[in-house]
Amino acid sequence: MIHPTLVTQVLTIRFGGHVAVNKVSCDFRPGALTVIVGPNGAGKTTDFNLISGQLPASEGRVVKDGIDLTGRSRSARAHHGIGRAFQLTNLFPALSALENTRLAVQAQSGHSRRFWGRAKRLTG
Q1: Exposure on the CB side of residue 119, measured as CA atoms within 13 A
Q2: 38 class by beta-carbon count within 10 Å (0-12 exposed, 13-18 middle, 19+ buried)
Q3: Strand spans (E) along the chain
Q4: pTM
Q5: Closest residue by Cα to residue 52 from 88, 18, 11
Q6: For residues 77 and 82, what is the distance between their CA atoms, to the nearest angstrom?
Q7: Based on the domain organization, do 68 and 30 belong to the same domain?
Q8: How far, CA to CA in Å, does 65 sit from each of 61, 78, 96?
Q9: Which of 16, 34, 111, 124 has its Cβ near the most Cβ atoms within 10 Å?
Q10: Do 20 and 73 fall into the same domain?
């Protein structure tokens, strides 16, 4: 049996009288797909914020590889391999999806300084 690398135990957060995440316990095992499912407002993002240290838990624990990270800073958690990436849907909202994609391709290909060049030179 593969032991979990990340465990949450009765993870809870309260905002005043509102309980946003209520006693959530999960095991995350290497090579296994673990899914947190729920409707909008169910607390999924808040749960991730608790795991990553973006928010402090009202109660419960976050354990990574047997080390209790509860109460530790985001940087301490990152040192143990827990991080958070934020979804950015509009890098440049005034540009089209094609123009945003073109900028990403240019940056990766080393052509980012030639913004006004012809787009065809970036295709195969």
Answers
A1: 8
A2: exposed
A3: 6-15, 18-28, 59-64, 67-68
A4: 0.69
A5: 11
A6: 5
A7: yes
A8: 13, 13, 44
A9: 111
A10: yes
